[in-house]
Amino acid sequence: MNITKDRYFIDTNIIIYLFSKKEPARQKAAKEILNNAHITGKGVISYQVIQEFCNAALKKFEVPLSLEDCKTFINNFMFPICGIYPGIDIINTGMDIKFETGYGFYDSLILAAAYKGNCKVIYSEDLTSGQKIRDMVICNPFL
User: Fold this and answer.
1) What is the 8-class DSSP label of residue 126?
2) Statement: the pTM of the whole predicted model exceeds 0.90
3) Domain that holds residue 45
4) What CATH number corresponds to the domain at position 58?
5) Is residue 54 situated within a structural domain?
């Protein structure tokens, strides 16, 4: 897989695959994206991604993470690349993007965070791969 040289946003679903033993190819791609984010500083997530990850990791994983393991993962791997925090500008931009694209509110907040973070690529499995929104392109790294 070729990771973009531009600044990129990592959606929650990509990070969740780090913990998927049933999907080794997706797990490998997710590791590559996250490792590259840490090495190059080009990959970014938002505070919303941390929240969504916690919800899934503590309740929805086949074997949920313990509270301590979840905190350790967040502190060591997510927080260092978290560069976008909530604010009225994200909400307003999210509403505008929702109107422009028809995506749901929470997906639009992800897109707004990527936009506010000056990302050119959004790695996501949930959004339409290849779609261009403003000056960003959505890329499903598993295709």
Assistant:
1) S
2) yes
3) 8-139
4) 3.40.50.1010
5) yes
Residues contacting 53, CB < 8 A, separation 6+: 12, 15, 16, 74, 78
Domain total of the chain: 1
Question: Which of 52, 49, 71 has its CA nearest to residue 119?
Answer: 49
Q: What is the pLDDT along the chain (143 residues), one digit of tens a residue?
A: 778 889 999 999 999 999 998 999 999 999 999 999 999 999 999 999 999 999 999 999 999 999 999 999 999 999 999 999 999 999 999 999 999 999 999 999 999 999 999 999 999 999 999 999 999 999 999 99
125 near 14, Cβ under 8 Å? yes
Backbone angles phi, psi at 136, to 5 degrees: -120, 155
Nearest-angstrom CA–CA distance, 22 and 37: 24
